[in-house]
Amino acid sequence: MAERRRTIFLLLGMLAWVAAAIGGTLLVWGAVALGAFGLRRLGSNAVPQPTPLVFTLAGGFGFHGTLLLGALWQGRRLGNSGLGIGPIRRVGLIALLCALTIFWLAGLIALTAAIPALHDFMKSMTPEFFLAEIADAGALVTTLLLTLVVILAPVAEELFFRGWLWEALRRRGQTVPITACLTAIPWLLLHGIESPWRILFLIPAAVIFAFARQLGGGVLASLTVHVTNNLAIVLVQVLASEFGDG
Fold first, then answer.
1. How far is the C-alpha of 86 from the C-alpha of 151, rounded, in Å?
2. Which residue from 18, 112, 120, 159 has the least number of CB within 10 angstroms?
3. What is the DSSP letter of 151?
4. CA 168, CA 82: separation in Å to the nearest integer?
């Protein structure tokens, strides 16, 4: 009973940090808007109005930066190896899981290309402004996007969910399947805020990340697979913007 209460308090703490990350997003949005407004008031007419893509990137940095801070803070409080960082075991298996994520994405792309209704559905899950602006994004915006999607987001999410939270749950006596579910569900829900149906397409990734975390000996294993997954997604987006729907 005591362990159950400790687990509930742990999950409430996790939710508090997620709420803080949302607050970080709002603060960054406010800073961007006020900064642009202030510069224009000072006569800097060359400063354009921030676009939705700029706000999306800024919010992403605010959210994941706060989430990373939460992971580091809680991992330090948890004590030795509080983030589950250790050498990757079964390197060949982790490489296989990386290949499996790419295979899943390739299969999804093939299905999307073959089924018009699925293509339209997948396209509807991406904001129209993102598709319109990403093709014309400059070098700075592209660099920020790559940094966010390929580096900061996987690092923050893995250290928070399958790093600190995974370690804390296991130390409270939770089994691996329960720990995998309790770390995957909030991760999936966060990615389904804009489009709940996106969760269905992310479940395979969540399962693969959990296998990597458990079988690879630590969070660096799941982080490797997560980075591979996000890099593949970025490459698909780049190819789509270069060659269009055809």
1. 19
2. 120
3. I
4. 8
Q: Tell me the chain's radius of gyration from C-alpha atoms.
A: 19
Give per-residue pLDDT as tens, 63-75. 999 999 999 999 9
147 is written with which tokens?
């940094």
Per-residue tokens: 170: 């296991």
Mean residue pLDDT of the chain comes to 87
CA distance 136 to 142: 10
**Dihedral angle, C-alpha 226, 228, 230, 236, nearest 10 °:** -150
Q: What is the DSSP string of 78-137?
A: H-TTTT---PPP-HHHHHHHHHHHHHHHHHHHHHHHH-HHHHHHHHHTS-HHHHHHHTT-
Q: Measured between alpha carbons, how far is 219 from 209 in angstroms, rounded to an integer?
A: 9
Residue with tokens 């928070």: 160
Residues 6+ apart with CB under 8 A from 231: 150
For the chain, the distance separating the N- and C-terminal CA atoms, rounded to the nearest angstrom, is: 58
